[in-house]
Write a structure and sequence with these properties.
six-stranded mixed beta sheet; four-stranded parallel beta sheet; 11 helices; single chain; 31% helix; alpha/beta
Length: 327
Amino acid sequence: MLEDRATAVSSPTQWPAAYPQGYAVVDVETTGLARDDRIISAAVYRLDARGEVQDHWYTLVNPERDPGPVWIHGLTSETLEGAPLFADIAEEFAARLDGRVLVAHNAVFDWQMIAREYARVRREAPVRQRLCTIALSKELGLPLPNHKLESLAAHFGVVQQRAHHALDDARVLAEAFRPSLHAAAAGGVRLPLLECRPLTEWSDRPVPRQSTGGYGGYRSSSWRPSRKRPACPYPNPGRYEDGKRLKQGMRVAFSGDTSTERELLEDRAVEAGLHVATSVSRLTSLLVTNDPDSGTSKTVKARQYGTPMVDEAAFGQLLRDVEPADE
C-alpha cells in the first residue's frame, strides 16, 4: 500500500511543491567523533527532486594525523599518505553540495565535521539545510528496531556491501532515502529540514601520526575547560512527558557518548531556554543518552527516579519546538 501511494505522487501535479529541488546524500568517515577530529574519506550521491540518483563522487582525504579507528573504517596511514588534503578537494566537494539539501544518517554529525573542515581552510560549505534520515524515519513511523543505518537499509531491502566505507554507506542511504521521500510525499509529511549554520571556530590539537595505521597513541580528548553558564531564568515545569513538547525551564542532563560534541548540545539546550544539569536528581526533567542500559551513574539514577530518557536524535527533534515558559 505504501509503495502504491508513493507511486501515485510521481506526477508533477501531486508532488509537494514545498519539497526541495535536489539532495546531496553524504557520508564521511573520520578519525573520531571529537571537535578536533578530521575527515578521512567522503562520498556524495546527488539526487534529483524525487530522489533519483544523478551521479556520485568519492574521495580519500589525508588528515595529516593518525587515522583513528582503523578497525572500523579500514583506512591506514599508508593508504591515506598520498591522498589529497581537504583544501585540495574543498572546491569539488562544494560543487557537489551547492544548492542541495544535505542528507545524512545522523546529519548533524556529518554537517559539523564538514563545516569544521571548511572553516579550517577559511571557506564555507554551500549548504543551507540538512535532513537527517533518522528524523525522517521517525516522522514516517517506520517500525525499526533501532536507528542504525543497517536497520533502515534492511527495512527497504537495500543490501549493504561495505559498512563504514563512505561510498557504500552513501549508496545505501541514497537507496533507502528514495522510498522514504516518496512515502513522505504520499502521506503529506513535512520534511524535517534543519538550518545549516557555518562554524567559525574549531579545535586542532597536535596528534602524532602512527606508522602502524592503528589507533596507537591517539586519544580523542574529552577534556574541556569548565564553563560557568548563567542561571536558567525560567522555573522548572516538571518532567518531560512522552509525546509532548519540551518546555523552557526543564532540567536536562546528558550521559554517555554523543555524535554531536557535548558542549554544542548543551549550548543548544541553553539557547532553547532549558536548564543543563550536571547530575540526575528527582528534579531532572529529562536524561539524554544513546545507551540507556549503559549502567552509568546518571542512567542508574534516572531509572531509580523514573526520569524519562530519550536518545540524541529524539532530543534534536524536541529542540525544534520548545514550548515557552509560563508568563
